[in-house]
Amino acid sequence: MIIAVCGFRGSGKSLFGSVAKKMEFPVFEMSAPILGLMRELGMVTTNESVRTFATDFREKGGQDAVARLILPNLRAVLQEKKAVVVIGVRSVSELDAFRTVSPVVSVAIASDEQARFGRIAKRGKKTDPKTLEQFRWADQVEEKWGLKKLLESCEVKIENNEGETIFREKAKDFLEKYR
């Protein structure tokens, strides 16, 4: 089983992933292959450069291009494990690629814009937007990748507007079904 987690930046995907890791689920980050390719090419990683590179990568390779990069690793791990978690799925095409190797449950992490922007301002990742304008631009880019459509189609929706402790409990309760 692939547990495909999606949501806009700052929604709580990484927190969901940390809960999954603590529960000993293998966790894959969709951003990892893109960041790895950018490092190999000697590119600087910023909010804008990562999204521009990822957009170009998808335009050249298809909307499922990033998903196809991690399929071999997913196949290998799924031979040993009952379920894996994939963080940061961005389109229905990526879900379809995952379905070629395993059943998939799609999970939307939903959080309001103010809460999401507040979270990213606190965490300070190098690739995070620094202003509300950059934040909204990043959301628009990810919408063009198909994220909004994907979120609307997810089988499960987990709200993350009530604080970290409550969200961790929601994530744990959901993941317990797949242990």
What's a concise summary of this model?
The protein has nine helices and five strands.
Q: What report would you give on this structure?
A:
With about 180 residues, this protein is α/β, with parallel strands linked by helices. It has one domain (about 1-175): Rossmann fold (3-Layer(aba) Sandwich), CATH 3.40.50.300. Helix content is about 55%, strand content about 15%. The chain is built from nine helices and five strands; from the N terminus they run E-H-E-H-H-H-E-H-E-H-H-H-E-H. The protein has helices spanning about 15-20, 30-40, 45-60, 65-80, 90-100, 115-125, 130-145, 145-155, 165-175; strands spanning about 1-5, 25-30, 85, 105-110, 155-160. A five-stranded parallel β-sheet has the order 2-3-1-4-5, sandwiched between helices. Helix 1 crosses helix 9 (about 165-175) and helix 4 packs parallel to helix 5. The longest helix has 15 residues, at about 45-60. The radius of gyration is 15 Å and the shape is globular. The termini are close together.
What are the salient characteristics of this protein?
179 residues, alpha/beta, single chain, five-stranded parallel β-sheet
Named CATH architecture = 3-Layer(aba) Sandwich
Q: CATH superfamily assignment?
A: P-loop containing nucleotide triphosphate hydrolases
Helix content: 55-70%
Shape label: globular
Number of distinct helices = 9
Spatial extent as radius of gyration? 15 Å
